[in-house]
Amino acid sequence: MAAGFSGDAVRVDVWLWSVRLYKTRSLATAACRAGHVRVNGERAKPAQSVRVGDEVVARTDRDHILGVRSLLTKRVAASVAAEAVDDRTPLRRRAPRRRSRSCVSAAPAGPPSATAATSNACARADAQTPRTRSCTCASFSPIAGVSTKG
Q1: What is the DSSP string of 8-57?
Q2: Which of 20, 58, 86, 113 could hold 67 in an S-S bridge, CB 3.0 to 4.6 Å?
Q3: Helix, strand, coil content of the chain in percent (nearest 5)
Q4: Which pLDDT belongs to residue 42?
Q5: Strand partners, 66
Q6: Is 5 exposed, middle or buried (0-12, 13-18, 19+ CB in 10 A)?
Q7: DSSP bridge partners of 42
Q8: Beta bridge pairs of residue 82
Q9: Which positions of the chain have pLDDT values less than 50?
Q10: CATH 3.10.290.10 domain span(s) along the chain
Q11: pTM for the complete prediction?
């Protein structure tokens, strides 16, 4: 049992706020009214009771699957709230990162005027020769397919 509570059931919106899933009780109530909260598979209204052992599924940025370990009626410290919840939410996998399509030269940058002059000269040469690859950076020779910088 939670400190200061002697009953066997708590409102679902109060419990969700107490275990820190929603920042305010008003947000927890709104989530219940919008149909984002389920208790034991059934859509929950804000005043629906939860008991120890119930499963609560609540949607925030994702669906959280929570088991009720103990009943709370007041917002408590995060460590106490964590003990009142059995979090069964599966871990999210990150989407694979996409590689950049831009070609980055490995050569260190020289003085700005020399880099601009070299880049312009390579651009003129690229315009005169057919391309064999899609890379258009200054250090790539489209004819031989090798780097022009050492």
Answers
A1: S-EEHHHHHHHTTSSSSHHHHHHHHHTT-EEETTEE--TT-EE-TT-EEE
A2: 86
A3: 25, 15, 55
A4: 95
A5: 56, 87
A6: middle
A7: 39
A8: none
A9: 1-4
A10: 10-87
A11: 0.58
